[in-house]
Amino acid sequence: MIYLDTHAVVWLRDGELDWLSASARREIERQDLFVSPMVILELELLREIGRLRASSESIVSDLASKTGLRICDFPFPLLVALAVGENWTRDPFDRLIVGHARANDESPLLTMDKEILKNYKRAIC
After folding, report:
1. Residue 23's closest CA among 2, 7, 38, 42?
2. CA distances from 60 to 15, 18, 117 (A)
3. CA-CA distance, 39 to 94, in Å (whole number)?
4. Nearest 5°: CA angle at 44, between 115 and 14?
5. pTM for the whole thing?
6. Count: domains in the chain
7. Which residue range is the domain that position 51 belongs to?
8. Could you write out the DSSP letters of every residue in the chain?
9. What torsion do the CA atoms of 59, 13, 3, 69 make, to the nearest 10 degrees?
10. Per residue of the chain (125 residues), what is the pLDDT tens digit?
11. For residue 11, what are the CA distances in angstroms to 7, 15, 35, 89?
């Protein structure tokens, strides 16, 4: 399983794959894709401030139909307990998104975020 960061969801949906390494492309083709519910909230906030045109629901649903993307249902209280330990960032979205990947056997997280790449050993791009 691979978790997707928020921007990865948008770029994959739009077919913008140039930023992916060859190994990351292979992994997303072989693995099940997941997102934290926090990605959905972040997508919607980006729409509200005008950085995205489509709703979070349409973005996630479109990518789900193309790739089988699923929303992780890891229990939120346990996730928050893990996210508390991600003290390398003040971004609550990043903390929870990384926490979700970490909660599921240190799963890979597809991201271009430099801080996540630096601080989460299973981050890939």
Report:
1. 2
2. 14, 20, 23
3. 9
4. 75
5. 0.94
6. 1
7. 2-124
8. -EEE-HHHHHHHHTT--TTS-HHHHHHHHHSPEEE-HHHHHHHHHHHHTTS-SS-HHHHHHHHHHHH--EE----HHHHHHHHHT-TT---HHHHHHHHHHHHTTS--EE---HHHHHH-TTEE-
9. 70
10. 999 999 999 999 999 989 999 989 998 999 999 999 999 999 999 999 999 999 999 999 999 999 999 999 999 999 999 999 999 999 999 999 999 999 988 999 999 999 999 999 999 99
11. 6, 6, 14, 23
The enclosing domain of 51 has a CATH number of 3.40.50.1010
Give the C-alpha separation, 12 to 67, whole Å.
9
Contact 13, 63 (CB under 8 A): yes
Contact 34, 12 (CB under 8 A): no
From the list 78, 70, 60, 83, the residue with the least C-alpha distance to 6 is: 60
Whether 101 and 73 have beta carbons less than 8 Å apart is answered as no
Distance CA 2, CA 9 (A): 12
**Position of tokens 């997303």?**
28
